[in-house]
Structure formats: C-alpha cells, structure tokens
Design brief:
77% of the residues lie in helices and 0% in strands. By secondary structure, the protein is an all-alpha fold. The two termini are 18 Å apart.
Length: 235
Amino acid sequence: MPEGLSASEVGKEIAERQEHAPAEPDAEHAQRDRWVGIAEAVLLSVVALLAAWSGYSAAKWSTEASLSLAKASSTRTKASLALIQANQIRMLDSVSFNAAETAYAANNTRLYHLAIRRLRTGYRPAVEAWIALRPLTNLKAPPDPSYMPQYRIPQQTQGLALSARADAYFNQGQAAARTADKYVRLTVVLAAVLFLVGIGSRFPVRGARYGLAGVAAVLLAVSIVQLLNLPGPPS
C-alpha cells in the first residue's frame, strides 16, 4: 500500500522549485511570482499531509478487508460443518422413521413402539404430531413427519445463521477493499499535484507556471472533496 508523500520529498521539491525559479526583470513580476511561490509551498504542504493521511487510511482499510474476508472464510467453514451435521441427522431420522413404519406395516406392535421410543428426542414430537393427523386416511396430511412444523434440527438453524453471518462478513470485506482502492486512487491524484507543482517551477514562461499551479490547485480541491466523502480509517 502506498504510504503517501514523505516530508523529505516535499522539502526537496520546494528547494528545487526555488533553485530553478527564473530571475525577474521587474518588481511587479517578482511580487507576483513571490505570491505564486508561497501558494505553491502551501499546496505542497497540504499535499504532503493529505497524501500521508490517504496512505494511512488505505493501509487501515486494506487490513480491515483482509480481516473481514478471513472471518467470512472461517465462519463459512463452521456453517458448512453445521449443515453437514444437519443432513446426517436428517438421514438418521429418516432411517429411524422407516424402521417404525416397517414395524407398523408388519403389525409388529412391540417393535413399532420400540422404534418410536428410539427416535431422536427432537424428532419424536414431529412424529407424534404427524400420527395425530391420521395420515393413512387424511389426504391433506404431509408426506412424512419431516414436513411438520415441529420438526427441527438445531444444526440446520445454526448453519443457516452462520452462513448469513459469513455473507455479512464477506460484504464488509468487499466494501472495505473498495474504500482502500479509493484512498489509493486519491494518493495517486495527490502525487500528480506534487508533480505539477514541481515541474511548473522549471518553466521559464510564467503562463505555463501559473497554469500548472492552477491545474494542481483544482486537482487538490477535487481530492479534498473526495477525501471528505470517504469514511475515516477503521479503529
């Protein structure tokens, strides 16, 4: 990540600008160039501060993006594990119910009640509610107990909640990465301001120097507006 413009670079640029400043033939132009030189020095100072802040913010947001994406990955792994466990429990419930259904079809009352007692604790209420609907004669009854509202698998609920949290972490990471990119682009614009101010002092034609300084001022104003619209670095 860019770290902004160092104070030594800005000082060197100011010294070179003064060294290459053209000699003035009259006091009016000298006074005007003096004010332009002061404005250029102010621009360079502001650029140095803003570029340092922009580089710092870009680094902080980049770290925030990495942390959020790492959280999203670990949370997604936990969600997948919980959903796998939920599917295994669902298969176990299905096998247990098939055993009770087979015993009922064979008119083996003892084996049927034994299979019912061995149902998973969280599955038995759904089975009992389904049997109460008389599914053999009630055509509106659900196909099996897993369709009943009483049928719950805690791991399923946990997995879905973890999956939603992983999505939230991922979205936060993406947003943080986009913010870091905006700060990087802002640092590049500020570097262009420094370049324009520095190269302007080397032009013997005053119009070119004044024009470059004006363009640099406009870019700096645009950069300040963009900086004010960006969120500050995360804590």
